[in-house]
Every structure is written in structure tokens, then in C-alpha cells.
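Q: How would the C-alpha cells look for this protein?
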Amino acid sequence: MIENIPEFSVTEISAAIKKTVETMFARVRIKGEIFGCKRADSGHYYLALKDENAMISAVCWRGVAAKFGVKPEDGLEVIATGKITTFAGKSSYQLVIEDMEIAGTGALLKLLEERKLRFANEGLFDPLHKKPIPYLPRVIGVVTSPTGAVIRDIIHRVSDRFPCRIIVWPTLVQGDGAAEQIGEAIKGFNSLKENSSIPRPDVLIVARGGGSLEDLWCFNEEVVVRAVYDSKIPIISAVGHETDTMLIDYAADVRAPTPTGAAEFAVPVKSELQAKMLLASPRMINAVFRLYNENKNVLEGLARGIPDLEQILGDNIQKFDQQTERLELAFKNYLTLKNNALVLNEIKPFYIKNTLERFSQALESLSVRLQSVSVEAVLKRGFAWVKNQRGQTIYNTIDAKKSSLLAITFADGTIKTRPMGKKDELQGDLFDLL
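A: Here is the predicted structure in C-alpha cell form.
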């Protein structure tokens, strides 16, 4: 009996099994919960699908995963469509996923509630963290698809209400990589400088049109929620329809029911502002006049309580005159008292006269002595005063010989002369009179 069993090599049996499996399970749909999901650097996803009794390995190539409406992650219940193939090198089999869909809204909602609770516990939805929306923004930044109707609706609505500059950061709003692009766009707007060529927006709008929960799932991703929480620029979220609520709505500073509603939150209506100003102008003018009249009445009332100014000044002038008279009288009395004190101390007038005479005689004697030693007195006694050309006094013949010009002053005048040299020792010097 054993001899009748066909014999196979390992390769042959592996190839036979592969052919059988791939033929029988060329296209299957498997429902299960994603487990152990990993995204390789190549972009491929490696994961497993499991239920309460079994588990099957699966792989999803990068190009296929980009078409999914939802990003594969642990805990997500999905229906994966693909084919079963074997891997001879490990004697294993796996599902090559060609399509993936959520296994019902209930699974996504369960995951959504789990994330919502976790983010709320971290404080990412704290109302105290909300920032006010500027009343009249100069620049509005929009994160959305550049080709959809959403951006056109926003531009049209802003232009109708209060035109201002709009800067669009184009991103995917669905599918693989959308969440990462949205998060980077929010961070990019925040990194702009005030004085850069692209100005930093005063408010951001993150928007997308309606769709299924799977279509809008990227706005529930952690990378988006944290980017919104960390933004220094106020953010208005406008994702889906009014009944759609994504996790970005809880983290944003304001949630708008639609992208058009976000534009209405961002800017007021210019015509309404102008009308309010026209109505407010007369009221403001009337208010100013009322305030003026009220202050005028108060001032007049206070003025009636103030005494007459002339009377106040008159009383003070009278007091000043009285004090002046008293001062003059006091000064006269003071002089009288001092004069009386001199009399009482027996300071006699003749005594003062004798003292003055003695001082006059002493002064006259000093004057006579000064006159006797003056230049004029000395010259009158036969002396002469000799000076050189520089006006310096000459005291000897040596200095006289050195001078080019001599001035000799006598009591009755001055003569000028020039030294001529000497004839002999006895005769002395000769002088040339000028």
C-alpha cells in the first residue's frame, strides 16, 4: 500500500499546495480585527486579522494602501478583500489585501469613542485652552483640498462678507497620508513669520465637505488633533455636514457646521458694520452733548457754592495793608529803641568826633610818607630813571651797553639815546642823543 503513495520533493509539494490554495482562494473576503499592524519604511503594511478563535497574517502593498478610505490600525474591525498565497520559505500562508473597508459603522464609532476619551483625559479638549477668534482678521489660512468646492465656497463667502487675503495650504482630505499632510499644514502656518513674504494668518480654517465616517476618518487621527491643540493661531474646524462630529471639532477653538459657516465665523458682514456705524454716529454725538451738558450743570452748581472772588481778594488785600502798616510801625519803634539804647549807654557824640580826628591824622601821615617815596618825589631830588627799548629798568652799564635804545626819565621829562661805545676807562661811555 505504501508503494502506491506518490512521492514529492519539498519544492514540489510546496508548489502544489501554493497552486491549490491560490486556486481555491483566489479572491476572498475576510472579516476580522486588525492586530499587530506595522507600516514599513517602504510604505507596505504588515498586519494580522483575528477573531476569537484564529488569526491570519496579511500584507498590503503601498500602492494599494494609498487607495483605502481608512488607515489600518490595531483594534479596527475591517473586511479585507484579497487572495490567499503561501510562502514556501516558512511554510506559511497570508492574505494579500487588495481592498479594505470598515466592518460596519459600529466598529469605527467604538474606536472613535476610545480615542475621544483618551484625548479628553490628556486635556486636548479643555475649554480653557480655547483661543478667541479675531474680529477682523487681515489674513485667513485655509487647510483643505485646492480643487474641491469647499475652497470656492469659503472664498466666495469671505468676499461677500468682508474681503481679506486668503492663503490656501493644499492637502489631501481623505485616504492614506491625508492626516499627516493636514498636521504638517497647521504646523507650517504656525511657523510663518509676521514679516515674511507669506504673512502669518490671524485665523485658520480646516475644512472638508461631507462624506461617510470612513471618508472623514483622517480628521480623527492623533496627528491632526495634536497639531490643532498645539497651534498658536486660532483654528475653526469645518469638516463634513452639521451632523458630522470629528475629534478635530473638539480640539479646535470653534466648530463650524459647514465650510461656509466657517467663513461666517471668520469675518463679519461689512455692510452690516457700516450700517451699525451710521446708526451709532448720531447716538454717539447725542451722548457727547448730553455728557457736555451734564458736566456743565455740575460745574455751574459747584460755581454757585464758591464765594465771590472779588470779596475773597478784597479781604486778603485789606489784611495785607494792615500787615504792611504794622511792619512800618514796628521798624520805627525798633530804630527808636536802638537810639535810646545808645543814649542810655552814654555813647556821647564828642567821643565819636575825637575818634574820627585821630583816624584822620593817622591817614594823613601815611599819605605824606607814601608821597615822599613816590617816583615823582625821587626824580625831583636829582635822580633819573633809565629804561631799555623794551621798557625794562637798567641798573648798570653792562646792561646799558647791551641795549639798542635807552630812555632816561628826569623830573621834568624823558630823553632817548643810543649807546656809541666807550673812549677810555676814565671818560666812560658816550651816548648819541636822539
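The chain has 13 helices and 14 strands.

Residues 422-434 have pLDDT under 50 and may be disordered.

Upvote if useful.
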